[in-house]
Automatic annotation (TrEMBL):
The keyword Amino-acid biosynthesis does not apply. Residues 12-138 form the TsaA-like domain. The keyword Metal-binding does not apply. Pfam families: FmdE, TrmO_N. This is YaeB/family putative methyltransferase. It comes from Odoribacter laneus YIT 12061. InterPro entries: FmdEsu_dom, TrmO-like_N, UPF0066_cons_site, YaeB-like, YaeB-like_sf, YaeB_N_sf.
Amino acid sequence: MLTLILTVMITLHPIGYVHNKCMESMTPERIKQEISEIEILPEYAEGLKSVEACRYLDLVFYLHQNECVQFTTPIRTGEERGVFATRSPNRPNHLGITTVKLKKREGNKLYVEGADALNGSPVLDLKCCDTSVYEQENIHNAIRVDSPRIDIVRNILSNETKELLLKSAQLHGHICPGLALGVLGATTVMQKLYEQGEDSKDYILTVEMQNCLVDALLFVTGCTPGTHRFQEGDPARMSFSLKNREGRGWEVHLKDSNRAWIAKQVPASFSVAEKGFAVLQLCFDDLFEMTELSGKSSEN
Ligand SMILES: [Zn+2]
């Protein structure tokens, strides 16, 4: 088969420029500490509509100060690597791509953290950062610092209850059916909350039980005594609720029949931890009763 390879000249037009105090002599780490202004040219400014919705952006820029190309280059450990296995600026097309954090926008100017572009670098593109391909454990630490519960939120949205049970057990000290019940109950309520586009930071968890479930409820909802979004009620009620200031939310009651149901569904020969994982496979409605609370209007 004949393959025709065309050498194409590509002409790129800057959409803007980077302004900061960074000169060529500075290390990338030092440059990243600076706040950079990205000025988008007026003819491209319409493309910034709703850019505030992106907390992280991929900044594509031209490494205008670098003219040389090195196909191999030593990295910090001294190991010699090919240029495509490094972030060296001495690359064939002199393109820089860096994920930056958007701090604020003023008209056609964006102020970002984490850019390693020198002052005057032509900006070729900006894209909303997509981290969906990253493995859970590889979520960038900068994102973790900003949103420490991001792993838990992803687990809830993806219904990864096994993962949530393992993580709750780091707090609880062991895996047991009670902890699994708490994971199941709290995950279901949190999914309802996220469906409404809300976050638990505006909600208070009221726990009316004193058992292993409580630790999973705290962990999954993020409503802890330290955040002042946790309170205890009558432990005899065997229920919990997640409510906002208006009293809107959900109340979840653990059915009296839960033990008998679990005993029927989960083999007695299982270890306590195995029983915990098995409980996650059970149907929420067979174990709990959930009531949606409509808040103030319902009290009238
Ligand atoms: Zn337990």
